[in-house]
Amino acid sequence: MLAVRLENGVVQVRKQAHPRRPEGFALIRLLEGGICNTDLELQRGYYNFRGTPGHEFVGEVVETDSNSKEWIGERVVGEINLACGACDWCKRGLGRHCPRRTVLGIVKHPGAFRELLTLPLSNLHRVPRGIPAEHAVFVEPLAAACEILDQVRIPKGAPVAVLGDGKLGLLAGQVLHAHGAEVHQYGHHKDKLRIATEAGIDTRMPKNPPKAEYGWVVDATGSSEGLRQAIQMTRPRGTVVMKSTVHGAVQLDSAPVIVNEITLVGSRCGRFEPALRLLQSKKVRVDKLISEILPLKDARTAFRRAAQSGVLKVILRG
Ligand SMILES: [Zn+2]
Ligand SMILES: [Zn+2]
Fold first, then answer.
1. Which residue among 21, 67, 162, 295 is least packed, with the fewest CB closer than 10 Å?
2. Residues 6+ apart with CB under 8 A from 36
3. Which DSSP helix (H) or strand (E) runs through 293?
């Protein structure tokens, strides 16, 4: 089978043996995989990664243990954290924080950019028929956007600033808009902001964003400057949701956080259920976020495209 391999910054597509399927795992044929900024960071050497990347995928189950044959032929998406199932975190349903977890395509579990992949059955969610594969591939990042509402209570009608017009920012804007918040999406790219406008979201490109204006600000800029900006825009006792993973130290003046008693909330992966519901009800539209769909064998080109500015989601088709 074909598998993408990342090593020393180089993307290769290689032939390799089918993966061994451990008990309790499903063997899944890749239908589509989405390249995310994390994959590009892995390429740059983050996590000292070498191996097969890919954690955003939709696939078809082709093999399981004999007692779970009902999964065979199902279209599935999969949660990316492989948890131990036994620790306190896992018992609370928070395997996403299991200290012994491995992570699909990121930490010690080969990723989804290969013709066949494995994941525990307990990680899988069936994809409803009404959701096409090229939309289902957004479930994982959309779940990360939905995580905001699991962490922070935002009243309907409340003004919320979302900073950033990249993939995650645009998803977060739509999730909060669907929730009923009054979203103001801030960005620098007219063409990307247009996607938010078409979803009914108020978009803004000011030179000087308003200070101490919002009770909730989501930083999805992907830049270290974003957090500083978000803190400035938050009113006293407000909350900043940190959605940008920036590598290396971020310079931060803590005085405004302390003086204005601002709450900083780190936010990562989320539950898949609300993301699937939003796609099925079409309350979140992802078509416009797709820049290009390429076959798995062209992964090298796909990674190059995904890294270009102005490009949103590049999808690999299995
Ligand atoms: Zn991702
Ligand atoms: Zn655990």
1. 67
2. 55, 56, 141, 167
3. strand 290-295
Residue 242 has a pLDDT of 97
Determine the pLDDT at residue 252: 86
DSSP state string for 185-230: EE-S-HHHHHHHHHTT-EEE--SSPPSS-EEEEEE-S-SHHHHHHH
CA of 258 to the centre of ligand 2 (A): 34
Alpha-carbon separation of residue 179 from 146, 150, 270, 285 (angstroms): 10, 12, 16, 14
pLDDT of residue 294: 98
Residue 60's nearest CA partner among 108, 138, 119, 100 is 119
Q: Are 18 and 35 in contact (CB under 8 A)?
A: no
Q: Determine the distance separating the centroid of ligand 2 and the alpha carbon of 102, expressed in angstroms.
A: 10
Reduced to 3 states, what is the DSSP secondary structure of residue 57? Answer: strand
Instruction: State yes or no: pLDDT of 246 exceeds 90.
Output: no
CA 136 to chain CA mean position, Å:
12
Residue 251 has pLDDT above 90, yes or no: no
Angle at 240 between CA 236 and CA 242, to 5 degrees: 165
Phi-psi group of 280: left, alpha or beta (phi > 0 → left; psi -120 to 50 → alpha; rest → beta) = alpha
Distance 293 CA to ligand 1 centre (A): 17
Rg of the chain (C-alpha set): 20
pLDDT digits (tens, 9 = 90+) for 173-220: 999 999 999 999 999 999 999 999 999 999 999 999 999 999 999 999
Neighbouring C-beta atoms of residue 212, cutoff 10 Å:
14
Q: How far is the CA of 83 from the centre of ligand 2 (A)?
A: 5
The model's pTM: 0.96
Is the pLDDT at 249 greater than 90? The verdict is: no
Ion ligand 1 nearby residues (CB, 5 A):
36, 38
Ligand 1 midpoint to CA 69 (Å): 29
User: Is 180 within 8 Å of 110 (Cβ atoms)?
Assistant: no
Which residue shows structure tokens 């102005």? 310
